[in-house]
Amino acid sequence: MNHPFQDMLGEATRLTQGGHLMAATELIQRALRGEGAPAPDQGAPPQRPGAGLVIDAQARVIDEPRPSAWQAPTDGAAPAPAPSTGAEQWLRASHSHQGRQLTYRLYVPPGAPGQSAPRPLIVMLHGCTQDADDFAAGTRMNQLAREAGVLVLYPEQVQHANAQKCWNWFKPQHQQRGRGEPALLASLTRQVMAEHGVDAARVYVAGLSAGGAMADILGRAYPELFAAVGVHSGLAAGAAADLPSALAAMRGGAPAGRASTPAPRPLIVLHGDADSTVHPANGAAVAGAALGGSAAQATAGRAPGGQRFTRSVQGASGNGAAVEYWQLHGAGHAWSGGSAAGSYTAPGGVDASAEMLRFFLSHRQPPSH
Q1: Nearest alpha-carbon partner for 278 in 316, 242, 234
Q2: β-pair partners for 139
Q3: What's the distance, CA 368 to chain centroid?
Q4: What is the pLDDT of residue 360?
Q5: CATH superfamily of the 61-361 domain
Q6: Does an H or E element contain 285, and which?
Q7: 133 φ, ψ (degrees, to nearest 5)
Q8: What separation in angstroms does the CA of 184 have from each of 95, 181, 241?
Q9: Which of 134, 180, 303, 323 maximizes the CB count within 10 A of its CB?
Q10: If you average pLDDT over residues 318-331, what whole number do you get?
């Protein structure tokens, strides 16, 4: 990572800790565009207009040219990749644990000459009918992670485990530590950490819809592994115990269930209040379970692209974790601020990837872990 970017990221962290979240996000976006810090009297940078919502549709992928520095994708599963040698890579491999197997993609950003410091890792869990390439294209997380020096892991659900390629967040055997998909995903995360020299204090997990629900489960089942959690348009851990209760929760919302624990990780939640696939009450339930009844400070705002939002924030205090809850007004079931190159995206909205990256990098695993 170059020093100017590090300086700007440090300033963004300070802005976050001071409650200036939009200013922190704007600073990160300027850094990623290589524009440098704005002058005191300089206005907000121009944003491209939104391209409309893509919601409640079959998954689609529109190929975009990738930077020439990326390693060409391979066909099919491959052995686990060797540690990064400094070149930017877009890897495909497979992982097995407890008789289960999944394929994954891994983005490895270029390393600076002589760089040896451990780097952060974000685990990204796609929604139903999506795959790793689609999710990476739609969220643009790789582009954001490149300059920040962050690895991004995209596990892929296999179709024989779920016909719609959903993570099975609603089944009890996949809501527990040491079993099912949580155990498989935690094992994969640890493998990538070991192979690529990841900073164990800066490992994060985020997801969309069913992936968001599984991210909440992982954060609660493996608090020593994930320093913070991001849930976009998802449901609370333990909100359902079978398919009928899952459908009911998606239609009307459900509180966190017994799968949750009393020690949530720092959490950022984004949910559209016009979501007709996963009821907006679920986003409130995810955030509410983390808040534990504590009061949060709410502010209203509008993103540069015009997206209205209400952001509720609680800083870490006592035994409570830091929580951000973004209600995206008028938004449906889509990754806010994403690219039209992927499915389930809402270009022009609040930049969910940038907000998650900002939130994640401002948190580390406590020393006790």
Answers
A1: 234
A2: none
A3: 24
A4: 96
A5: Alpha/Beta hydrolase fold, catalytic domain (3.40.50.1820)
A6: helix 281-291
A7: -65, -45
A8: 8, 5, 20
A9: 323
A10: 84
